[in-house]
Design goal:
Elements (H helix, E strand, L loop, with lengths): L1 E2 L2 E4 L6 E4 L3 H12 L3 H20 L4 E3 L3 E11 L2 E9 L4
Antiparallel strand pairs: 1-2, 2-3, 4-5, 5-6
């Protein structure tokens, strides 16, 4: 469930509130990790995010270590857009 800038996640009766990482902050984190310049990396990051969305939207399973294996578990139309629930399987750390 999305409520403004927070996302409620969890299973059953024990949900917890997760902080939403906006695109700008995500890009800043990638830049900090790689040391790349914003002008160089921005187009690559945007293309990568678009491709991730396209792969999942087409119904394919996305296998990208260390993120894991992601696929659409549930998809429905809602007011203002599509609601897509992903299943993400990751290796135990």
């Amino acid at each position: 469930m999305v409520e403004s800038d927070r996302v409620v996640t969890g299973v059953g009766s024990d949900p917890h509130v997760a902080q939403v990482v906006q695109k700008r902050e995500f890009v800043d984190r990638v830049l900090a990790r790689t040391g790349a310049r914003r002008a160089e990396a921005r187009h690559i990051i945007e293309a990568t995010l678009a491709e991730l969305g396209d792969v999942l939207e087409s119904g394919q399973t996305l296998a990208v270590p260390p993120l894991g294996r992601a696929r659409i578990a549930l998809e429905r139309d809602a007011r203002g857009g599509q609601v897509i629930t992903l299943r993400l399987r990751r290796r135990a750390s």
